[in-house]
Design brief:
heterodimer; A: about 300 residues; alpha+beta; four-stranded antiparallel β-sheet; 12 helices; elongated; B: about 230 residues; alpha/beta; about 25% strand; globular
């Protein structure tokens, strides 16, 4: 080309900025959604991981029945250990947590507290999910007073996270497609504007790669600019609102390795999208046919 | 330089044959004129020789390469050895004269001496004052002259010009012929398409398009009158 490929972008500043902004938005939204999804997933998982199911036995449950139940639960594949907690142990734990004075002032005695079985799951998350239904089913037994099942909200959140991930993926595809289309159209316009120069270059022997290079360079450059802008935007937003987000979400590490990877993803995705748009614009459809050699030239000549 | 056997070409629009089983050869560093009336197929033959169109049938060898078997980069490589100027040349109207001239040298990777070479050619035609003028400001005859200079620049091994000589001012035509002659002396093969003979000197080989064939009517065979007697070929 007579002029550097990026000179054309400079000559069309408004359209270049508009296209780069569209691509930036298309990169920012999925990144924010991905961050939100991983954060929510992490919160739900934390809640489930910290859960230890407890089975409260009736006051009239016999020692034999309690032991039989403990043995039965111990054999479940998802259970690591089952510990029996007597009413005396329960009172001691209560006194340790609240203080003996406070417990006495509440009028609680060991007769008022039930015996219970504490379950330690073998597999932190998957074990819980499988365990929940089995533990919940124990309520039907005569010797069981009640069971403490994990927060239904955490489970719902996990399911919602899955649905949100699917919706995000769809949105991501739509946004990516739109941005890719906008970028490809812009690159096609630039290429069309230079069609005479490209035709002359081809007549005098410029090869396919030389003719495609300017469009590919422009695509990659716009993609890189958008990627840098998207990463800077998300990174700065997180840095500014880090304190508020930590307050709202608890002790959560937003700036984890995964978080950094997600925030830095546009730096890679942007140029990749730009390259893809360039390839779409410059691809030769009938490469296999005999007339393919003359295809670009004829295309340019046809568009005169 | 060029060998052509059993060439058949159909008219692109009505599919009527323009050439049927014709053939010709062009020696390296020779001066060949292909003469024919309007619509006789000169431009079509030009587009085939300048590798912008493929023949319907026949074998075409340019610089020892079988055009039919060429693919992608090899095709481009062969085009880099050809300087061509069509009857309606594509020029960049918004670019300057010198920018238009140096394009072939940029493609051939000879950017270093592109500007001096272009300036030398413009000097030859006394057009150096138009060096940085936008091409759209030039007269038609000047534009045609620039297109021909673009074919000559860098003295490629094969120079092909398709007609348009009558559009050029006489004061520009003579230097262009001189430049073409110098290129030929330097080893370039020159092929000119025209309605009338350009040069009558004995070194000229002339082919006449007649009855869908190319006939050799070189000056040593036929004493055809030259249209441009003042040309210095």
């Amino acid at each position: 080309m007579l002029r550097p490929p990026l000179q054309t972008l400079y000559d069309r500043k408004k359209r270049t900025i508009l296209t780069a902004t569209m691509l930036t938005v298309a990169l920012v939204i999925p990144v924010v959604l991905a961050l939100a999804a991983t954060t929510t997933f992490s919160i739900a998982r934390q809640k489930l991981d910290s859960y230890r199911p407890i089975i409260y036995l009736t006051t009239d449950a016999s020692a034999d029945a309690t032991e039989q139940l403990r043995n039965e639960i111990s054999q479940w594949a998802t259970v690591a250990t089952v510990t029996k907690r007597s009413s005396t142990d329960a009172l001691q734990q209560l006194e340790k947590r609240l203080g003996p004075e406070h417990v006495r002032s509440l009028g609680l005695t060991k007769e008022m507290l039930p015996n219970s079985l504490l379950i330690e799951p073998k597999i932190p998350l998957a074990g819980h999910i499988q365990l929940i239904s089995r533990v919940a089913g124990l309520e039907a037994r005569m010797e069981v007073e009640s069971v403490d099942i994990p927060s239904a909200d955490a489970l719902k959140t996990l399911r919602l996270t899955g649905m949100a991930t699917a919706a995000t993926s769809f949105l991501l595809l739509m946004l990516t497609f739109s941005a890719l289309n906008a970028l490809a159209n812009f690159l096609r316009t630039l290429e069309h504007h230079e069609r005479h120069e490209l035709a002359i270059l081809e007549i005098f022997g410029a090869d396919d790669s030389a003719l495609r290079r300017p469009t590919l360079i422009r695509g990659i450059t716009i993609g890189l600019w958008s990627g840098v802008a998207a990463t800077a935007l998300v990174g700065l937003s997180l840095a500014i609102w880090q304190a508020d987000l930590t307050l709202a979400l608890g002790q959560l590490k937003i700036f984890s390795a995964t978080g950094f990877l997600i925030v830095a993803l546009p730096l890679f995705l942007g140029p990749l999208l730009g390259l893809l748009a360039g390839i779409i614009v410059t691809r030769r459809k009938d490469r296999a046919t005999n007339s393919a050699i003359l295809r670009p030239l004829l295309r340019w000549r046809g568009s005169r | 330089m060029i060998s052509c056997f059993q060439l058949s070409i159909d008219h692109p629009r009505d599919a009527q044959p323009i050439f049927e089983n014709t053939g010709f050869e062009v020696e390296p560093a020779s001066w060949t004129e292909i003469i024919g009336p309007a619509a006789s197929g000169k431009s079509l033959l030009f587009s085939i020789l300048s590798l912008t169109h493929s023949p319907l049938k026949g074998k075409l060898l340019i610089a020892g390469r079988n055009v039919e078997r060429l693919r992608g980069p090899a095709y481009a490589e062969l085009r880099r050895r050809i300087g061509s100027c069509s009857q309606n040349p594509t020029l960049l109207n918004r670019r300057t004269v010198i920018e238009n001239l140096i394009i072939p040298l940029i493609v051939r990777g000879q950017e270093a001496n592109a500007a001096p070479e272009a300036e030398h050619l413009l000097n030859s035609l006394n057009l150096i004052a138009l060096r940085d003028a936008p091409l759209k400001s030039l007269a038609n005859s000047q534009r045609q002259a620039i297109a021909m200079l673009r074919a000559i620049i860098g003295r490629p091994p094969l120079i092909i010009i398709d007609d348009g000589f009558e559009l050029i001012d006489k004061k520009h035509l003579a230097p262009i012929i001189t430049l073409l002659r110098a290129a030929q002396t330097n080893g370039s093969t020159v092929i000119l398409f025209a309605r009338q003979p350009i040069c009558t000197k004995p070194h000229v080989r002339r082919l006449q398009i007649q009855d869908k064939q190319l006939h050799d009517v070189s000056p040593n065979l036929v004493n055809a009158p030259a249209k441009n007697e003042e040309s210095s070929c």
